[in-house]
Design goal:
single chain, 473 residues, 4-stranded mixed β-sheet, 44% helix, globular
């Protein structure tokens, strides 16, 4: 089906949105997203998957060079800097999650920072903030073209579809492309969209974010050079509509002052307290509460006394992993995260190490877990719940989590968000670098040159201190 004017309205909005459209609420929420994204990205530079893609990307050269976060001596061509920094952001599944389901920031911020460093006229912090919000807004609009998108995904990883479009839109904004060029950037990006969900819980999943950042940036640069795609890419079922069974797009709203409404204004994001799939936060909180009930009744916690653990969770095959063998599988396992919480009374970064995965006590407890998927438990991050029921010899202890701390209904306090960033960033950056990023993001709308952020992101520490391995918000 051909619908007229939808892509054209997106191109006009990407081009036409101004800093005067930004509201205090959107500025505040987007600054929180940026800070969290940088923190989890810096922590992610210590992972095996990041180091693999960094080694690969160093084979490419160009006159233009952009920073690799947490690496004081390494620069890459801007698209590859966007790629490796995007991979770092999602390497531990620690980045923000939106509703409908996607990771909105990781595909946009790495692209913008890499691009900003390469432009002859350095964008201001306010320019960066506007472009970031344009990229987030486009993702939010696209996801609302389908009811299917509101549930936990089943076929493809959403950032690989809407993320590349958000990166293209944000990059187009920073490049000040014309409305027509913005349309072509979206069309070019659409031909790089998509990644199967079968690669979730593997080392390839973080590449979905890195590829979205890189390919969106490249799409905008190609559009700037005059490359064209289908100018009705969003209007067609055979265009962006191929990704959704119930595709029903609509035009972008009027940009008249006071009439434009940002999606982020009404729909906040979730910030994670543990480096795992968002669904794991419900089961961890329920398991911790069930353990507390057990201890309050019988005293000391003795896992050998547990006869069965029942998890009541929404149906989702890719996070139902009864015997995880890798850290990436563990991050996508209701069973593993519930058992880790029960055994250790916490879940942290170090919970997903090989040593923790292979503990005999963990394997024994995993063998006692059964999973139930009640029909009323909707596979949606806005509606789901988790129950954990622990049975011992003659007693039963059950706890339920409807909304975890960090969810958009129960957001992290600013203090806890900054602490999460500081702990993550301190594993890589010096104190000056950590404090510099916090200050720059906190005052981003007043920063003269956004490239100052990249300077702070290169201030590495000679003594890497891993605080987060033993802490949980």
């Amino acid at each position: 089906m051909l619908r007229k004017g939808i892509t054209e309205s997106f191109g006009a909005a990407i081009h036409g949105l101004r800093t005067t459209h930004l509201t205090d609420g959107v500025i505040n929420r987007s600054k929180r997203m940026m800070l969290d994204n940088l923190g989890v990205g810096l922590l992610g530079t210590r992972t095996a998957v990041f180091n693999k893609v960094l080694t690969y990307s160093q084979m490419f050269t160009s006159e233009e060079r952009s920073s690799v976060w947490g690496k004081s001596e390494i620069t890459l061509p801007p698209p590859y800097a966007a790629f490796v920094n995007g991979v770092a952001v999602h390497s531990m599944d620690f980045d923000d999650t939106w509703h409908p389901a996607t990771h909105p920031s990781g595909a946009v911020l790495p692209a913008l920072l890499a691009l900003a460093e390469s432009l002859p006229s350095r964008p201001s912090g306010l320019d960066l903030l506007l472009a970031f919000n344009v990229g987030i807004e486009v993702q939010g609009r696209l996801m609302r073209f389908s009811r299917e998108a509101y549930n936990i995904p089943e076929r493809f990883h959403p950032p690989s579809v809407v993320g590349v479009m958000g990166s293209a839109a944000a990059s187009a904004k920073l490049l000040a492309l014309s409305p027509a060029q913005c349309c072509h950037a979206l069309a070019i990006a659409a031909s790089s969209a998509g990644a199967p969900l079968a690669n979730a819980a593997t080392q390839t999943k973080p590449l979905h974010i890195g590829n979205a950042a890189r390919r969106g940036l490249e799409a905008a640069q190609l559009a700037q050079m005059g490359l064209e795609g289908n100018p009705a890419i969003l209007d067609l079922d055979s265009g962006f509509g191929v990704y959704y069974k119930d595709y029903s797009p609509s035009v972008m709203a009027d940009l008249a002052p006071g009439d434009f409404k940002w999606i982020l204004e009404d729909q906040d994001v979730a910030f994670k307290r543990i480096p795992a799939h968002l669904g794991m936060h419900w089961v961890v909180d329920a398991a911790l509460a069930a353990r507390t009930k057990l201890e309050n009744t019988v005293g000391d916690f003795d896992p050998s006394q547990i006869t069965q653990v029942t998890l009541r969770v929404p149906p989702s095959k890719y996070v139902d992993c009864p015997s995880p063998a890798t850290e990436h599988q563990a991050r996508h396992s209701f069973q593993f995260n519930a058992c880790s919480a029960l055994l250790d009374n916490k879940v942290t970064v170090s919970s997903y190490t090989e040593a923790q995965l292979n503990r005999p006590a963990l394997k024994q407890l995993l063998s006692k877990v059964r999973v139930q998927t009640p029909e009323v438990n909707t596979p949606s991050f806005d509606k789901m719940y988790c129950e954990v029921e622990v049975e011992t010899q003659g007693q039963c202890f059950m706890a339920r989590c409807d909304t975890f701390y960090g969810h958009w209904r129960k957001p992290l306090s600013q203090r806890d968000l900054v602490e999460k960033f500081s702990v993550n960033a301190s594993t890589v950056l010096s104190t000056e670098g950590v404090e510099g990023v916090i200050d720059a993001i906190g005052n981003i709308e007043r920063v003269r040159e956004s490239s100052i952020l990249s300077s702070y992101l290169r201030m590495t520490s000679s003594e890497h201190k891993q605080f987060y391995s033993s802490r949980m918000l």
